Amino acid sequence: MMPLHAFYDLEAPARADALVTARDALGNEQHDRFETLREMLAWGAFLQFRVGIMPQQCEGMITGEPSGLLSRLDPVMSRLGFTQPVPTGPYCRLYERPDAAMVCSSPPSADFEGNQVFTLGGGDAGALRRILGEIATESSLEVEVDEWTPPLQ
């Protein structure tokens, strides 16, 4: 098993940057990963150095109507006290407040419209459940958690 290599597609410009794709070293099928290199770098750093240091984390999927999924999520997160430390486009979000942080992303492809993969970190499982519950009840979004780190007892 080899990790995929990232490629910068200069023929697909976006917001003064370009599309980031990934594929294996043999040049097989490529997968669009991030709309811009700047978002990929910000997402990775935020995931590792903000979300990843939280005592409890969960990963999953937020699903909703394809048009404007993030525009419906943004006000909920704002009401919960989250800010967006880095401006992002229509396929990526970074949210933080003092006690919690979340990254969301989806590949810039029509196949994934209406879906955002998320990783949320906070002090404990109860705090994360309250945040996810607010997202699910205050909007037309569905939340599915796939994994807790560390696993819940």
Question: Could you characterize the architecture of this molecule?
Answer:
The chain has 153 residues and is α+β, with helices and mostly antiparallel strands. Helix content is 25%, strand content 37%. The chain contains three helices and eight strands; from the N terminus they run βββαβαβββαβ. The strands form two sheets. Strands 5-6-7-4-8 form a five-stranded antiparallel beta sheet, with helices on both faces. The chain has a three-stranded antiparallel beta sheet with strand order 1-2-3. The radius of gyration is 16 Å and the shape is globular.
Topology:
Blueprint: E1 5-14, E2 17-23, E3 31-34, H1 37-51, E4 56-63, H2 69-79, E5 92-97, E6 100-105, E7 115-122, H3 125-137, E8 142-149
Mean residue pLDDT: 88
Distance between the termini: 31 Å
Count of all domains = 1
Radius of gyration: 16 Å
How much of the sequence lies in strands comes to 35-45%
What is the approximate shape?
globular
Helix content: 25-40%
* Major sheet details: 5 strands, antiparallel
Q: Per CATH, which architecture?
A: 2-Layer Sandwich
Q: What is the CATH class?
A: Alpha Beta
**Number of helices, where a helix is a run of at least 4 consecutive DSSP H or I residues:** 3
| CATH fourth-tier homologous superfamily | Sirohaem synthase, central domain
Class by helix and strand content?
A: alpha+beta
* Beta strand count: 8
Uncertain stretches: none
What's the helix-strand series?
EEEHEHEEEHE
Kindly identify the CATH topology: Double Stranded RNA Binding Domain
Query: Strand order, biggest sheet?
Result: 5-6-7-4-8
